[in-house]
Amino acid sequence: MNSSTTSRLFFGKFVHNVDLENLEYIHDGVIVVSETGEILHVEKDVTQEQLANLASQYSLTADQVTILEENQFFMPGFIDTHIHAPQYVFAGSGMNLQLLEWLETYTFPREAFFKSTEYAKKAYSDVVSQLIRNGTTTACYYGTIHVEACKILADTVDEMGQRAYIGKVNMDRNSPDYYIETTEDSVEKTEEFIQFMLEKSKKNPRVYPVITPRFVPSCTGDLMRKLGELARKYDVPVQSHLCENRGEIEWVQQLHPELPSYTAVYDHYGLLTDKTIMAHCVHLTEEECALIKKRNAGIAHCANSNFALRSGICNVRKLLEDKQKVGMGTDVAGGYTTSMLDAIRTAAIASAAVSFTEQDPNGNNYSQLKLAELIYLATVGGAKVMGLEERIGNFMVGKQFDALLIDPSKPESNFRLYSHDDFYTTFEKFIHIGDDRNISRVYIDGRLVNSKD
Ligand code: GUN
Ligand code: FE
Question: The pTM is what?
């Protein structure tokens, strides 16, 4: 629906994180957005007179002014820092196995289908539209090893107006013969894809490449070294999986006895940088935490997947206390849903479980993540992990307007409001029991990309 945009003014309620621990609830707020989607002006407690003055100050006509209905509000778009676009085709199925068996049994056979560009076109159109309608305005995607299919994913994201990093997956060892590449091919196609994406990004800066070694077991040292060189040459981000599952960690130790840890392997090959996004990080040692922090790499917390594949429970509270960069990911299809609302809810449950069972060095139980912290992880935290905090994550002047218009009063809504509901409880209800039916409109770069009005 890429409707072209003019400057706009939005008047009503807004909620966003001002920092990790605080959500700001703005009443009678105004946000003015430029033609290119930049937030020019934010103001709260605006009177009708001030509203008229602001509209005239920005030379806006009545049709450029949107006035929200009583219970509606805007919140920042969700940022999914870890999702496998090709795995949408089997999301919600095959949840009986743990990671390594799951990869062999379900994942690799299904990803192999993306050799067909026709198949890729249909599947990628399905997944990108599904994410957008669920409010994911920015995604950090894994593709497959097939460069043509990855280009189709990039074209789809471009056409649908989403903001995304997209990576061609690299796999040159320990992979089935029907789904593996030579080291040489893997590097060559990755460079071709990076160049394709950088070219695309000149016209549409919403799309960008990310180097994507699947994980250490499926990439030789030679390949990882060359990918590290590409990351430096093009100064682009890197994403992979780290310390997700105990069996996986043991396997990495067997493959790399010369290096002290799983994290050290990525670091050794130049893949742990301040632009790196490591998914899961459930079972990190203290040394690994320190190394990630030293390199200023980011972590994608994928709570649904960690439960569904029974990988373990990540102690996000500890990561936050250690001042690590943390965002959230759905990890479709290890995680069974594309919805970041579900990612938030499952992260809440994971943090409750940690709070029952784990103590900090002083012997106190870790505290559960609060609503503000959960929303932060799904917005500002994700932006930081992706190096996009200057552009997106909340409604600060100078950032881009990536926003969701939430309508809690839709007749088909899963929840109802009562006289005792204020803005805070309305927001809580949406986060806990709302769904895509309440996500009435989705804006990316100020452009309306999805509307259920
Ligand atoms: N580790 C390597 N590949 C994958 C994958 O596709 N999903 C998850 N969850 N972990 C992985
Ligand atoms: Fe994953």
Answer: 0.98
